[in-house]
Amino acid sequence: MILVTGGAGFIGSNFVLDWLAQSDETVINLDALTYAGNRENLNSLDGNSRHVFVEGNIGDSKLVTKLLEQYQPRAVINFAAESHVDRSIHGPEDFIQTNIVGTFHLLESVRAYWSALPVDAKQDFRFLHVSTDEVYGSLSKDAPAFTETNRYEPNSPYSASKAASDHLVRSYHHTYGLPVLTTNCSNNYGPFHFPEKLIPLMIVNALAGKSLPVYGDGQQIRDWLYVKDHCSAIRRVLEAGKLGEVYNVGGWNEKPNIDIVHTVCALLDEARPRADGKSYREQIITVTDRPGHDRRYAIDASKIERELGWKPAETFDTGIRKTVNWYLENQQWVANVQSGSYRDWVAKNYSERNA
Ligand code: NAD
Ligand code: DAU
Q1: What is the CATH number of the domain that holds 141?
Q2: Which residues form the NAD(P)-binding domain (predicted)?
Q3: CA proximity to 184, closest of 301, 39, 20
């Protein structure tokens, strides 16, 4: 039995689906169902007795303690977070509450549970914290990719809150001996990605005939990994990672944003040509840049490859095709997430940028 937090979000739901398809173990899925949490991502698990969904907050110590005692998981995997940089710029408070205070309360609940376990179960227990490459800050054009020993230099309220949570997790290992593992991954893409993030936003806007808003000069570089490869890395770290260690996860796949947008347009031109015969590229516009926008992220994934033998299964070419096809085939999912609050966010974020 494992306890997953944030398992109704983008990466968490992919993880839960893959886990249940590949193992016999039950998953307790604790998710607060914020705007980013979506039960529909888990529809295919309806009636599956190995998936126990619990709506609740990682900061609710009473609830978390009850779940730990009731289900006695051998591992906790913490995906729950506020995850969108732009939202953290508009309103950092939720990021502090969930990513820092929430992680702290979760760690406290887990520490109490773990401390009371019998010796064998105590040794086998794992707390795996899912984090991001953004904690390392921004790279210059020719700097080497981030390794696990890079200094933390977070630049947004989001990345600062994730950095703080990473430090808390680290401290619980060093101080209390809690058996923790941390992964720092680069940008994910794939099914169930909420369409406020670059790739799904571009697909969804293109198909709706809306503009494709590129921040600043579009030359910011991100390092893209297909979400299922991130999930396989987490499974591998859980299985074989060395306690207290950090593993960077990435696909050696650096691309400027504008290239990503061009690729999405080209795939849609092929799969769903515009009625007027023109390219979706016609819809690209430049908008005001993100404040404090990090210029480049790049992950050096040598350690996880060398020590744990993990490698991504998808190239960017295969992963992005799967992703575009998934959005074409799941337009009802897209329509359902574009609720009132989604529209409010889009209006707020992009009206300011078009000035
Ligand atoms: P997401 O925003 O899609 O999902 C987050 C999930 O956490 C949602 O289901 C939400 O309801 C839930 N949640 C939020 N606050 C909660 C709380 N207080 N208690 C319980 N549940 C809560 O995020 P994601 O993109 O799936 O990211 C998951 C994790 O991976 C995050 O920790 C993020 O920092 C990290 N990460 C994301 C990426 C990426 O590219 N998306 C890359 C590297 C690391
Ligand atoms: O690097 C890992 C991180 O990747 C994760 O920790 C975060 O949770 C995840 O959201 C993601 O952060 P980014 O800020 O890199 O992702 P986002 O999709 O918001 O933006 C990707 C790039 O695209 C970034 O340089 C900003 C740019 N962008 C984004 C949007 C939404 C645009 O140019 N236009 C847009 O409309």
Answers
A1: 3.40.50.720
A2: 3-323
A3: 301
